[in-house]
Amino acid sequence: MIIKNIGELVGIVPEGVLRKQGAEMAETGALKDAWIAIEDGRIAGFGKMADLPDGEVGEPVEPTDIDAAGGMVMPAFCDSHTHIVYAGSRDGEFLDKINGLSYEEIAVRGGGILNSADLLHETTEDELFRQSMERVREMMAKGTGAIEIKSGYGLNPADELKMLRVIRRIRESVPALVKSTFLGAHAVGRGYTHEGYVQAVIDMMPQAVELADFVDVFCDDGFFSVDDTDRILTAGAACDLRPKIHANELAVSGGVQVGVKHGALSVDHLERTTEAEIDALRGSVTMPTMLPGSSFFLGIPYGRAKAFIDAGLGIALASDYNPGSSPSGDLRFIMALACIRMRLTPVQALNALTLNSAYAMGLSDVTGSITPGKRADLLLTHPGWTLTKLPYTYQTPFIRQVFLGGQVVK
Ligand code: NIG
Ligand code: FE
User: Fold this and answer.
1) What are 215's strand-pairing partners?
2) Is pLDDT at 61 greater than 80 in this prediction?
């Protein structure tokens, strides 16, 4: 299949480039008046309309060909940090928040993550799958083609494994790529002491590794310490689980440093960082990942993305879609927040939401850019759209079609 008459093809990256850092964040390959070919679910090639091979010029000839009519084609978004397997809603806490309670105050009163754990405990696995799939479908229709999903609302062995099985079932049911993260250490489960729960998480590791790709710890004020994190990540490493860490959301936690020490694929949140975190990340394999949806919803600082980029680092952006701190998986809105509030350029935000977020889930060799051989995970916009207009007129519908693995999902 060929998509012809593309106004601009953006997000072209040479083969073998797995992430962008520093000044590279400001670059993306783009081609005007272009075509792109999809074969067996992969990108087979692209070029200028003027250079279409003989017999392919002019109006669409194959019934499967698509006339983009000047629309833009870009890589589908990648969401490297979500908690979309959850039960019910926390709209009561939303009212508490409006009335002035902070995220920490809601958590201390037994709300927050523990509230979601209670709801999940009472929900059957089939129902949990059904509710979670609604979110996945919404995300795919909004242009997301790769999704990391965390456990962490189980907080006991049976319910954590229930979550991980639901994530596996989602992976088997959708054309989006899905990665699974064991976040047993999201909060101390009911009925456990802090120390007893850290040990329980370590003991869950051999079963979790059967279902999960990564291990995560909420290393932050009032949740898990650097020492807890170090122990849990050591147990994860013994099972070959690479870390992705929650760090520096509520305080400068030391989570970045312990994550880098363990070769984390990403350290996420980073609403509160100092130069020490930037220094720790320099030269590492770890992708700093910022979640402006949480900053927006909780009213906490935005990550210092520009300082990170000026220091030569890459950054990824993700939704953090969850019922407590970021109840949205709309990555176009995340792009708008990144541009409007963090002052990233649209190109920097695109790189952060595609190639770099794919890197943050170990997928940048298969998706996240326009590169021959990669999966055809693509968005086709309505005519007249440019990359800059996505975060600018940030609520006007722009997606005409979404292709995941070459398959039309919208
Ligand atoms: O990434 N910070 C920890 N975990 C989630 C929030 C989870 C919740 O409140 O349910 C986050 O923001
Ligand atoms: Fe999170």
Assistant:
1) 182, 243
2) no
